[in-house]
UniProtKB/TrEMBL annotation:
Record-given protein name: mannonate dehydratase
GO molecular function list: magnesium ion binding; mannonate dehydratase activity
Keyword Acyltransferase: no
Keywords: Carbohydrate metabolism, Lyase, Magnesium, Metal-binding
Function text: Catalyzes the dehydration of D-mannonate. Has no detectable activity with a panel of 70 other acid sugars (in vitro).
UniProt lineage: Bacteria, Pseudomonadati, Pseudomonadota, Alphaproteobacteria, Sphingomonadales
UniProt pathway: Carbohydrate metabolism; pentose and glucuronate interconversion
Originating species: Sandarakinorhabdus fusca
Family: Belongs to the mandelate racemase/muconate lactonizing enzyme family. GalD subfamily.
Length: 403
C-alpha cells in the first residue's frame, strides 16, 4: 500500500495567490491538490498545516473515500469554505496519486470519457457594449462555442466582470478591499441592450452567458430573465444570493431563462433543495471549494436525477491544479453542461505545468497518468505571497450590498 509520508502546503503568487497541497507516499509518488480560497488563502493553509496534515501521515493513500469521511465527519465541525477547500486539496491529491500508481489519467478511474471533449466558455468583457461585442467576436474567431458577456454600466465607475485587461480578470486587487458602487436600475437597462447587440454581431450559433454575481432580488432577476428571453441566453448565473433557496422559485415563476448557481457552494447541502425542486438548471460547484472530486461526483449524481447539469466554476483564482481536476470530472460525468475557462497568465502556467489543452472551443485533460498537472517548486518559490482582498460593493447611498 502507498503510505503517506509527508504533505506540504506551498504558497505562491505568480500574479495572484495560490495555495497548493503536495502529498508524498513512501514509494516517492506525489500528488497535488488546489486549496486556494480567494482573499482567505492563509486560513486554508493554516487549517491544512495545523489540523489536517498531522492526521494524514501514515495513512494508505489509496483509501480516498475513508480519508474523505475521516476529515469530514471526524472534524465534528462540518462544511464551510475553509474546511471543504482543505478536504478538497487532500482528495484531489489522492486521486492524482491513484492515477499515477495505476498508470491512468484520472478520468479513466472515474468511468472513462463520456464525451470527446469538454465545452468551455470564455469571458468577454469591456467598458462599453461595443468593446464587449468586439472581444466576444475575437473569442468566436478563436473557436469558442460559448462566451460569457459582461459590460460596464453607464454612469458607474466600475462593474463586476469588467477588467483593466481584456483577457485576464483579477478581482482580488488590493491590500484592503476596494469599494465598488452598484445601481440595479442602471444595470437592468444595459444588459438586454448588450445581448441584443451581441446576437446581432455574433449570430445564433454561439452560446451566450451572463453573470449577475448575486446582485438582484428574486423579482428583479425574474425581470432580467424575462427581458433576455428573446436572445436565448445559455444561462443567467447567480441571479440572486442563494442562502434563501426558495428565492429561485420566484425567479422560475417569471422566466424560462436557464439558471446557474453554486460557485460559492461548498457541499451538497447547499444545493440539495435547489436541485430537488428543479429551481436551477446548472450547478456550478467545483473541485476546490466543494470537497474535491469525491464530493463533486456526489453532487452531480444528485443533480442528474433532476436533469440539472454541471457548469464548474473556472475563474483564474482556481489554480491549474483545480482546472485539471475539473476537466477529468467534466469528461467523465454523465450530466456535464459546460466548463468555465478563464485563461491563466503565462507566469501561472509556467509554475503549474499541465497536460490539458484547448482547441476549437473544447478542452481535454490529456492522458498523462494522474491529473497531468504539477507545481514547479523552484519557480513557485520566486513568487512571494502578497495579501489581496476581493472588493466589497455598496449601493449609491452607501448601503453594503452583495459583491
Ligand atoms: O467566474 C465567475 O463566475 C466569478 O464569479 C468569479 C468570482 O468572482 C471569483 O472567482 C471570486 O473569487
Ligand atoms: Mg460567477
Amino acid at each position: 500500500m502507498p503510505r503517506i509520508v509527508s504533505a506540504r502546503v506551498i504558497i505562491t503568487s505568480p500574479g495572484r495567490n495560490f495555495v497548493t497541497l503536495k502529498i508524498e507516499c513512501d514509494d516517492g509518488t506525489t500528488g497535488v491538490g488546489d486549496a486556494t480560497l480567494n482573499g482567505r488563502e492563509l486560513a486554508v493553509a493554516a487549517y491544512l498545516t495545523e489540523h489536517v496534515i498531522p492526521c494524514l501521515i501514515g495513512r494508505d493513500a489509496h483509501r480516498i473515500e475513508d480519508i474523505w469521511q475521516y476529515l469530514y465527519k471526524g472534524a465534528y465541525w462540518r462544511r464551510g469554505p475553509v474546511t471543504m477547500s482543505a478536504i478538497a486539496a487532500v482528495d484531489t491529491a489522492l486521486w492524482d496519486i491513484k492515477g499515477k500508481l495505476a498508470g491512468l489519467p484520472v478520468y479513466q478511474l472515474l468511468g472513462g470519457a463520456a464525451r470527446e471533449g469538454v465545452m468551455v466558455y470564455g469571458h468577454a468583457n469591456g467598458v462599453s457594449i461595443e468593446d464587449t461585442v468586439a472581444v466576444a467576436r475575437d473569442y468566436q474567431q478563436q473557436g469558442y462555442k460559448a462566451i460569457r458577456i459582461q459590460c460596464g454600466v453607464p454612469g458607474m465607475a466600475s462593474t463586476y466582470g469588467v477588467s483593466k485587461d481584456r483577457y485576464f480578470y483579477e478581482p482580488a486587487d488590493a491590500d484592503l478591499p476596494t469599494e465598488n458602487v452598484w445601481s440595479t436600475s442602471k444595470y437592468l437597462r444595459v444588459v438586454p441592450e448588450l445581448f441584443a447587440a451581441a446576437r446581432e454581431a455574433l449570430g445564433w450559433d454561439v452560446h451566450l452567458l451572463h453573470d449577475v454575481h448575486h446582485r438582484l432580488t428574486p423579482i428583479e432577476a425574474g425581470r432580467l430573465g424575462k427581458d433576455l428571453e428573446p436572445y436565448r441566453p445559455f444561462w443567467l448565473e447567480d441571479a440572486t444570493p442563494a442562502e434563501n433557496q426558495d428565492g429561485f422559485r420566484l425567479i422560475r415563476q417569471h422566466t424560462t431563462t436557464p439558471l446557474a448557481v453554486g460557485e460559492i457552494f461548498n457541499s451538497i447541502w447547499d444545493a440539495k433543495h435547489l436541485i430537488e425542486n428543479q429551481l436551477i438548471d446548472y450547478i456550478r460547484a467545483t473541485v476546490v471549494h466543494a470537497g474535491g472530486i469525491t464530493h463533486l461526483r456526489r453532487i452531480a449524481a444528485l443533480a442528474d436525477l433532476y436533469q440539472v447539469r454541471t457548469g464548474c466554476h473556472g475563474a483564474t483564482d482556481l489554480s491549474p491544479v483545480c482546472m485539471a481536476a475539473a476537466l477529468h470530472f467534466d469528461l467523465s460525468v454523465p450530466n456535464f453542461g459546460v466548463q468555465e475557462y478563464m485563461r491563466h497568465t503565462p507566469e501561472t502556467d509556467a509554475v503549474f505545468p499541465h497536460a490539458y489543452s484547448f482547441a476549437d472551443g473544447m478542452m481535454h485533460p490529456g492522458d498523462a497518468p494522474g491529473l497531468g498537472v504539477d507545481i514547479d517548486e523552484e519557480l513557485a518559490a520566486g513568487y512571494e505571497y502578497s495579501r489581496a482582498f476581493l472588493p466589497v460593493n455598496r449601493l449609491e447611498d452607501g448601503t453594503l450590498w452583495s459583491w
